[in-house]
Amino acid sequence: xxxxVPGPAVTDARHVLERIxxxxxxxxxxxxxxxxxxxxxxxxxxxxxxxxxxGVGKTTLxxxxxxxxxxxxxxxxxxxxxxxxxxxxxxxxxxxxKAFVFKPGPVFANIVLADEINRAPPKTQSALLEVMERGxxxxxxxxxAAGAPFMVFATQNPVDYEGTFPLPESQLDRFLMRLRMxxxxxxxxxxxxxxxxxxxxAIALEPVASRAEVLQLQALVGQVFVEDSVLEFLLRIVAAxxxxxxxxxxxxxxxxxxxxxxxxxxxxxxxxxxxxxxxxQELAAPVLAxxxxxxRPGADALEERQAVAAVLRKILAALPPx
Amino acid sequence: xxTEPKRPRLNLAELHQLRWLLGTxxxxxxxxxxxxxxxxxxxxLALITVAAPVMLWRPAWSTRLPGxxxxxxxxVILGLAAVDCRLDPGRVLPALVRLTxxxxxxxxxxxxxxxxxxxxxxxGLFLVxxxxxxxxxxxxxxxxxxxxxxxxxxxxTITLAxxxxxxxxxxxxxxxxxxxxxxxxxxxxxxxxVVLLGGGLFVGLVAxxxxxxxxxxxxxxxxxxxxxxxxxxxxxxxxxxxxxxxxVTDIQNDPGIAFNVDVSDRxxxxxxxYWRMLVLDDYFAPGxxxxxxxxxxxxxxxxxxxxxxxxxxxRPRAGASTWTVYFEPGISKYLPLPGRFGQLMFxxxxxxxxxxxxxxxxxxxxxxxxxxxxxxxxLDLTTPPTEPVGETDESGEPRSAPKNPDYLDLxxxxxxxxxxxxxxxxxxxxxxxxxxxxxxxRRACAWLERRHLTAMQVANEPAEGLxxxxxVRWLAGTQPGHCEYFxxxxxxxxxxxxxxxxxxxxxxxxxxxxxxxxxxxxxxDAHAWAEIYDAKKNAWLRVDPTPGADVFGSLTGGxxxxxxxxxxxxxxxxxxxxxxxxFWYRRIVSFGQDTQVRLATAVQQVFEGWGRGLKDYLREKxxxxxxxxxxxxxxxxxxxxxxxVMLLLVGxxxxxTGRLAWLRRRGADPIRREAGRWLARLAAGxxxxxxxxxxxxxxxxxxxxxTWPDPAKIFRAARRVAARPRAAGGSGLASPG
Lengths: 322, 737
Description:
The complex is a heterodimer.
Chain A: H1 7-27, H2 32-44, E1 48-51, H3 58-68, E2 73-77, H4 84-88, E3 89-94, E4 99-104, E5 111-115, H5 122-134, E6 136-139, E7 142-145, E8 151-156, H6 169-172, E9 177-179, H7 186-194, H8 211-221, H9 228-243, H10 253-269, H11 277-288, H12 301-318
Parallel strand pairs in A: 1-8, 1-9, 2-5, 5-8
Antiparallel strand pairs in A: 3-4, 6-7
Chain B: H1 12-31, H2 34-37, H3 42-57, H4 67-87, H5 92-109, H6 114-135, H7 138-165, H8 179-189, H9 192-215, H10 227-232, E1 242-244, H11 247-252, E2 257-263, E3 274-280, E4 282-285, E5 288-290, H12 293-297, E6 300-301, E7 306-310, E8 321-327, E9 343-350, E10 354-356, E11 361-363, E12 372-379, H13 418-430, H14 437-451, H15 470-476, H16 483-496, E13 501-508, E14 511-513, E15 518-522, E16 526-534, E17 539-543, H17 561-568, H18 575-588, H19 594-630, H20 635-665, H21 670-681, H22 688-702, H23 711-723, H24 726-729
Antiparallel strand pairs in B: 1-5, 2-8, 2-15, 3-13, 4-5, 6-10, 7-9, 8-12, 9-12, 10-11, 13-16, 14-15, 16-17
């Protein structure tokens, strides 16, 4: 059995991804890098944690992706009184059939936007996290498969932490990447202002890829070739976070696997059937940063994020690519 | 976008640690050239030797010196240098060297900035160059090689630290150095190609220089410039025309090498060679001898600049040998001569000089200021010197009287004065009036030995009732004395007894260096002895009246050859270093170009021999193969042929595929490595072909092997792109740095 992707499949994959990217750019202006990283996350089959202020286009981003790949989209606003069943769904007694019928919750969509995930109590958070990990929901004594493809966009506000339940590190580990959107530049913001639409459901985007194509892409990722020296390079980065005195703990094995899969997805996005050290370097920060905590925590979350990013940069600078 | 892969670099702290290490090594290395100069600076040298490991062990201590110490350092160093100059006036260089050592020590124990590092290099260079000029030894070659390599690395580190941190201070963690960790880091970041290339270039340069050195004509390599005069000071008075009592003993206190001698025939070497330098026949003042003007007149002047001085013009005899003397600078203008010689030849032309072979004295116009090499042909160590004939006229008849009246002159002594009475009394005690010179000498020496012991310090103060003349007073008493007292006393006694006698100064003995197989004579071997004239033999007999010596020396008898050499062998460890000096002298000195031509021819012959041997071997094999091929073919030969062809094919196959597989299993895929090199070499370009090429190279480097394009084609394309000018192609070589 060959352990590498056949050439035509790579070309097809690149075309599909380019179509999706071009489609999303129509609504997400001036954020090509963010769009690319979302696509990497999609192809790798991971979930995304977006940390940013409200109103920078997080919902639009998730909705545009869902529309582009012809997938169901659901949005859950996490609040302190949100119950696990509000997310996963609930069993309701059906008078006619005289039995409990499971009413699927919003999590059964393909693209789920969990807005302000840290506002919900841990029990509700973990209900979502179980679906993220297993792709299944356990309810009423049965298990129900979530959608395929399935991707969660969780968001949280990095500034306003009042009355929140911060995600524990073990749960953060389940997100493939953490991103920041940031404000658009002036020219792009002017374009956004010119457009009349404000609500995301008013976005009229035609699908450019099918769910089946997305699933095919996800199946292809594992076959992207990783040369031994690049794998060793990746391992050196992971090992360096474990020996770095400024971190409380290093990257887990799951974190290393996540970085490898994300790099493979990025290679596919660039039309390659092998990964470059550059793929690993580019994705190290978005994939690893949220899995790391400082040994001496910073004054606030923002400051801590910056400190972690700085140490990661130092580690990367010290490690030569093969 | 494709980016050039970055090579890991040492951080600023590590660069400063490396800088500290190299700076300290350089300072220690250059300080250890001082012992070669023969300058007394052992105290400073010991301090530097201790400071080097301590400062490498605890670099942090260099930053702990209080501010006032820094402010005081230079005034104190200058003060010490001034005191040094005052204590040893007239000798500039030793003081300068000690000042340099003080500055180096200060720089070693204090934190250095860039400027201070450069100062260390300059100070070190000064010491190394001075050592080279003064010592002219093989050790210097090793020292300058080590210094150059170390200095180059040091400068590189300084530049890297500068580039990395600009003029910024070294980060605080530089002082917390762990040398093993640093060594591992240096190993990790070193670009071994560059290291090998640099090392190879250095070795190549040294090799080429050596070959050039062998083939180039020699230009006074042994010249020690004028600096040797600064360090040696004036030559000692023990070997000048006028010698006072104690002057030779003065020289004995100096352990430095006076001259080295290469002997052609080991069997000729006597157990105790006597090296005559100067004949002192005139006792002109109490305790002072000099060469008389009459004797001076017998020294013939060479007409012009010359390399040859003809000696006794004897026919070559069986058993006569050739000795080469390497005479150190600043000793004397009189050359040490171990016996009669047929011809004296210098390695270089000399200014007109004086000499008389019968007298056994050759005097240059001035003491040599650099090593002087001369060869004595047909050397005869067994025949005593005869009476000099003086200058001859055109017909060969002597112009001056053959016999010099001063040999019997007692100098300031007036007949029948109190001192002559003393001497007469003594001679009467020593021998009957009609004894032979030999008999008298033996008796006089025995008489002296009975009355006097040897000592370096002599207490011979004037006293009531004793003669005023120094030597006669010493003779009248029983105080110990040194060689000059014994020799001087013997001369006076012999003359008083009516035997012509004279004093000789020079060297006695020496050591045999078994490493370089040569005789080494030191200043501490300086000696004074006497000669007594035997009219019957018309010969001057050597008499060494100093107790412990064989009275007639080993002129005719005594041990010779291997037995003598064994007794003289220098067993000190330092003999190894002394031998290096002689090896160097042998290389640089050539009496004519013969040695050099022989050496160059030998090198040429070795290379030609190799070439010829290879050519012959190939020709022979070709002939053998043809002969084998021309024979009739039977099944056995066909099988051999087929087997050979099969073997070749298998070999070629393995070379193409098996070798690659084998290399890949060892994790050293040559194609991936080559592709990686090209990726690092080609900068990002905007040409479409450059983008495609980069893609292919990336595939070769990181892609799965079955998906590879043809590596040879890709590497050819890469070579084409690299060769293209940057402006025209948009892609080319990455600019350095």
